[in-house]
Amino acid sequence: MNDSADNTLALASDQSRAGKWVPLAMFALYIVWGSTYLGIRIALESYPPFLLAGLRFAIAGSLLFGYLRLRGAALPSARQWRNAAITGVLLLGFGNGLVCYAEESVSSGISAVTVASMPLFAAIFAGLYKDWPTRNETIGLLIGFLGVIVLNLGSALSGSHIGAAALLVASIAWAFGSVWSKHQDMPQGMMNTAAQMLCGSVALLAVGCLTGEKLPAHPAPHATLAAGYLVVFGSLVAFSAYLYVLKHARPAFATSYAYVNPPVAVLFGVLLLGENVGPYDLAGMAVILFGVGIITLAKLRRAH
After folding, report:
1. DSSP H/E element including 94
2. Mind giving me the DSSP string for 159-227?
């Protein structure tokens, strides 16, 4: 009996230590991923969407995979490679690839706004596994989505119907992949990130080649710098942080970044591109942050 109690305490202690980086990881998701919408927009000035996304994740995945192998990390099993491939195609192939495709016709801010519907889909998919959001989490999700609508009212809708549809499919695929992967045998630690990026990059590069995309002979320097930023910060830092949070936090909290990314994307547009911010934009940002605050408090209450 004492051994059982000791094992329970040890497990709880390990889980507590494992989750101690969640606040820092969420900061990376909120700020870094919010900036990647602008990074994608700039990189697309020279690079085609699917090859851009494919090369981004191929480079980041190869670097991380090589580093982990040098450190002695074990290779994933055949089942883990299969699960990483499915999740990588859903999150990176459909999720990120379609966002890049949509940003050819949809502004970076509007892209972030549309993708903010993802937490609602994630909550629905999580319910299929009997993990429905709590009452407070549901309130926070709905308030956050209301803020997205308010933010959308103050934006110039320059996107096409095809771009909007692509963003919606991207949100659904990302949400399902995120929830599905939590219930599968995935590679351990950072090897999960590397495996998903490698598998996702294969799908993206294949689509790029099949659709006739070509890499530019003389890309603009600022577009190449933006692509490099996406490799280092968007992939190695932020995507790793997302998979970490997804493992150590509830879906409603892990996916709350999607509500913060729109105001962050808008702010980066103001600071770097001189875009204007109106009263709807400010009101929407405030409502979004209020909704995220409710989700965060609900997460903290469950932890205690």
Report:
1. none
2. --HHHHHHHHHHHHHHHHHHHHHTTS-PPPTHHHHHHHHHHHHHHHHHHHHHTT----SS--HHHHHHH
Q: Rounded to whole angstroms, how far apart are CA atoms 200 and 195? A: 8
In this structure, what token pair is assigned to residue 274? 């001189």
Q: How far apart are CA 19 and CA 22, in angstroms?
A: 5
CA distance 281 to 293: 18
Read off the tokens for 63.
Answer: 């670097």
Residue 283 CA to residue 76 CA, distance in Å, equals: 46
State residue 4's pLDDT score: 46
Token pair, residue 265, equals 């994307």
Distance CA 89, CA 96 (A): 9
Contact between residue 73 and residue 304 where contact means Cβ atoms under 8 Å apart: no
* pTM for this entry: 0.77
Length of the chain counted residue by residue: 304
Q: How confident is the model at residue 12 (pLDDT cuts 50, 70, 90)?
A: very low
Long-range contacts of 21-25 (CB under 8 A, 24+ apart): 21/244, 22/244, 22/245, 22/248, 22/249, 24/241, 25/241, 25/242, 25/244, 25/245
* Tokens linked to 280: 């709807």
Residues 246-275: pLDDT tens digits?
888 877 778 778 778 878 887 887 777 676
